[in-house]
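User: quick one
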Amino acid sequence: MSSNSTWHQLTTWFSSKSTWFGANGAAGVFHLLYQHVWISALSLAITCAIGIPLATLLARWRGGGLVVTSIANAARSIPIVGVMLLLAIGPIGIGTEPAVIALVIFALPPIVTNTYTGIRNVDAETSRAAVGMGMTRSQVLARVELPLAIPLIATGVRLAAVQIWATATIAAIIGSGGLGQLITVGYATQYYGEVYGGVVIIAVTAVLLDAALQRLQTVVRRRFGAQAVAS
Amino acid sequence: MRLPGGFTFHKQGDPWLSWHYITSNSHAILSATSTHVTLTLESVALGLLAAIPLAAIARQRSWLRSLVLNLGTAIYAIPSLAFVVAMIKIFELSSLTVIIPLASYSLVILVRNIITGLDEVDTDAVDAARGMGMSNTRIFATVRLPMALPTVIAGVRLAVVSTIELVVIGGYVGQGGYGSKIFEAFSNRSHTELTTYILLTVLLALVADLILVLIQRLVTPWRRGLAS
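Assistant: Done. Structure below.
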């Protein structure tokens, strides 16, 4: 196949109505985008719900730092594709559930590390002053330490969100749907118009999300005061 | 690779882990290890080769620096599956299909670290070298780069460990070392094979990191005794 015909396939794919709205039971880009947003949002919400309280607990405990570093190092060397495939042939089977579980596991490190660092970076004098004002330990956490940690927590959430969005693509391999399905279906049927169309859409959405979240983070940092950034 | 047809119950004689599997498949394991290591080394080496001049150029002008860093962020945001599959039409099913995307990700990590490393170089040392009559190129090669070495090697460690993990996605196009085995195990629904190769990937990353820590101590003897 010449590159010319791949280009032709690509333009045909982009200009076809069924590409965007689906046809004959096959999902269109808009439906896949909806699935991708849903899986990513769900995974990010679960990760925050687990990661932020976990980091808060670890920050109050002496050995917490070691646990945080270990979680981060372990997650960096475990292949996420392998874990997804493993969950898919395990008792849970294929679909959205194993995808969300794997996405949450691998999005925990950025959120845990940054929240932990954010709370730990709060000046001990500041916390002590709050205690001196008669606040209880939990009040210090809720009214002083967590608010001061917000810039770093925001960094963690941004990194997790970008990572989830990108990795959700791989989840299409285990049948979770989403934009990655354009690549898996296109590759399986050797229809490179769809593959390259998918690559373009996935890359553009990933870069746009990253840029948008960086903007948002700048706003958050300006609102809650700048701190040292660990990424 | 096809989507699996549906549920199958856990097969008999297919435990999650088996020492027997490892001993009876040692040849396949060694061959996959060699492919995985080769792909990793080629990717990181290519990334490093491109990163050094790019970092040196990026430091010349502030607009070049932000251009290089922003372009890096964009490249890093491209999902690995998309990047690898996009290379198929260009490189067919050769190892470059996997190496080019992974070298690009390494490049991004390394450029950032090299720029940071070069920024941290003591200006007094550079002035002294200039006073001795060294040319800019010579200063770069004999003063700046060696002084930036600890930060550069920290970047290499990060690049190697993440590349070892990323090579696995190459299994999707049959070019992944352990990754090829992992995808094969998924198609055959073999729990033993899948867990074995996942653990091998983790082990390889740990060993590689350990070796790089040793190299770091060897090439930067003046930092021995300091925390790495």
